[in-house]
Amino acid sequence: MEKQESRIHPDKMTLYSLFAACPLYLEDLLEEEVLHWGGKIQKRTTGGLSFTATLETIYRFCIHTRVAGHLLLQLSEFDLTEDLESVRKEALHFPWDTIMLPEATFSCRASAKGRGNINQQLASLKLKDGIADYWREKTGSRPDVDRQNPDIKVQVHIQDSQKGQMYLDLSGETLSNRGYRIKASSAALRENTAAGLLLRSGWKKISQEKCVFLDPMCGSGTLLVEAAIIAGDLPANLYRSHYGFMNWKSHNQDLWEEITDQAEQEWKKGIETLPRITGYDNDKNAIASAIDNIKRAGLDKYIHVEKRALEDLALTEAQMAAPGGLVVTNPPYGVRIGEKNALYSLYRSLGDQTRSPQFKGWNMSVISNDISLLGAIGLRQSRENKIMNGALSCAIYHYELFGSEQKKKGPEKVQLENELHISEEGTQFLNRLIKRKKHLGKWLKRENVSCYRLYDADLPNFNFAIDVYENKWIHIQEYKPPVFIDMDKAEIRTKEAIKILKDLFSLQHNQIFLKQRRRQRGQDQYRPLGSQGERYLIQEWGQRIWVNFTDYLDTGLFLDHRNIRKYLLENSKGKSVLNLFSYTCTASLMAASGGASKVVSVDSSKTYLAWGRDNFSLNKISDTHHSFEQSDSFDWLRASKDYFDVIFLDPPTFSNSKSRASVFDIQNDHAALIHLSMKRLKKDGLLIFSNNFKQFELKEELLAEYNISEETKWTVSEDFLKKKSGHRCWFIRIK
């Protein structure tokens, strides 16, 4: 095994390789923080991201981050052996004298992700032994292990049972421990989860408009303190007493003191701009804890708390005089206070109280792990987010608390028109988007769909296809304008469209992705546009899927096939399934998740099959009974001797792939392809045939030979009905 050189140097301009972790679903907020403080993103993953940064950026990030949990410094990367002895050898040969003093105490831990079954306890032990053996060889003695309060924390992370990465924990205790909260209620949010909830609620922008903040069930006050930190743009971790980097040999105390001095000045300046922040709770012990925590945070002059029952909720004159306000709260849910049946009245009361005219013009965000409890609030949410509260998967429902007069005016439209100063054509585009959002809203909620087609060139001057992913990212495909269209005007409309979408969905610029779409020839739609390799996590029908908005024209998920994938999920149990032209294997994933006994995915692209394997691994599906075959589908069908219960056939319109001797044309060649596929179908099996060629006509010879029914009416879902921009689909069986 080749030993990598250490990248650790005391020079403060050195670029370090780092990994920052955060609660699931807050990765985009973490990315904003990393970029803001000067980091350069290398790779995005579920629950964190890799980046490079200088020592100064590391310090500024640690003292300011609101959503990060841990910050890890990558020390090395190595190939893993099955017996994990490679972990010990990597630690043995690493120059620990560049990291720690010989007398420093240390602790070790291991983590694993992806394929395989790793003994994490054994990996941790091997790591500890390697460090101990290094110091024993170098000094004749070994440092002590301290599991409670070590000077140095070292971690080994194992990916897919193949690669190991060794890290130094620069954060020490989780960065969510700000230092102000010693007393916490039994159901308190973690500080970084609370910050994520507030950022999702839009509090950062709302607070800048001199609006006020209210938590009617404040518990130990975590949301109140985090609301102040965000509103004042305060350094969140200023008053932490210790960080993991303080015992790192590359730690620069002078630079650290300079940055903390600057942070103290930021704090003093920021608290003078704080809006009115108020918290109530009916539990006197919770209020006592909140008062202590707020004092410890140095914010007792700026946050008011008092004991008050929810049914007595009423705004003060000062709150009513403000231009608006935000209610954010973390009510109890059955997990923490017993039976949830007793909680329905509490949630109903929250809805009743905030429905009062005194809250006209306010907004509200509520977190819960139980959708039925959120439903008891009785208000229609305007949007929602997912978030993790520790190990609990929760939802955040956002509400616009406006009266009937505002409903008639359409506050979303009026507000955006005033803020954006958009053109007359832009106003038409905005109106179309708002109308479309409203039209799709009930369907999205009923079907639990989070990735959908919002708009498809409905207006001639806004010639785009716009897809929304998880309400966190927007993928715009701009159709190439005709030659008679002024390119400068087209560019202006594109920029206007992006700004409208950005504000309509409350997104940052880096959450919107623009590509130009032309009629594709051959494999163009599958060829890379760039090489950023950035992937994002979405969910469909309960399964997690990787998408890529930057490197290819398509994202890795054909949204119009959503219902076909659901059919495979629900009808594959115990069946053998073949997926031809499998792309990123999302249809295969649904079949496997639905209990298929065997799934074979065939595609000519090694890249997309690897993507498919990653989708399987992401959902913890072993490939023991499933295979990924790199081959031209025609060649594979001719060579195969296997038979299948279900075959999914979704070929491209054209293909001049290098793996084929001739060009494939769907209209000319589909009959031959279907005949080959039917030879691999069991007697009672089903071939699902789909394609997106708008002028496609099924050949008569197929209708004569097989039982064929067109199923397009139900396989195309609501978001693709209007312009018929999706596919056509047939179910084909042996007569």
Could you write a compact summary of the structure shown?
The chain is an alpha/beta fold and 735 residues long. It contains 24 helices and 29 strands. The longest helix is centred in the middle third of the chain and has 24 residues.
Describe the structure.
The protein is globular and about 80 Å long. Strand 6 and strand 7 form a beta hairpin. Mean pLDDT is 88; it is low at 1-10, 403-420 and 518-532. The chain is of the alpha/beta class. A seven-stranded mixed sheet has the order 2-3-1-4-7-6-5. The protein has a seven-stranded mixed sheet with strand order 10-9-8-11-12-14-13. It has a seven-stranded mixed sheet with strand order 23-22-21-24-27-29-28, with helices on both faces. The longest helix has 24 residues, at 424-447. Helices cover 34% and strands 24% of the residues. It contains 24 helices and 29 strands. The chain folds into four domains: 16-169, 2-Layer Sandwich (VC0802-like); 191-240 and 270-405, Rossmann fold (3-Layer(aba) Sandwich), CATH 3.40.50; 410-518, Transcription Regulator spoIIAA; 536-734, Rossmann fold. InterPro entries: 23SrRNA_methyltr_KL (IPR017244), DNA_methylase_N6_adenine_CS (IPR002052), RlmKL-like_Mtase (IPR000241), RlmL_1st (IPR054170), SAM-dep_methyl-trfase (IPR019614), SAM-dependent_MTases_sf (IPR029063), THUMP_dom (IPR004114). It catalyses: guanosine(2069) in 23S rRNA + S-adenosyl-L-methionine = N(2)-methylguanosine(2069) in 23S rRNA + S-adenosyl-L-homocysteine + H(+); guanosine(2445) in 23S rRNA + S-adenosyl-L-methionine = N(2)-methylguanosine(2445) in 23S rRNA + S-adenosyl-L-homocysteine + H(+). Belongs to the methyltransferase superfamily. RlmKL family.
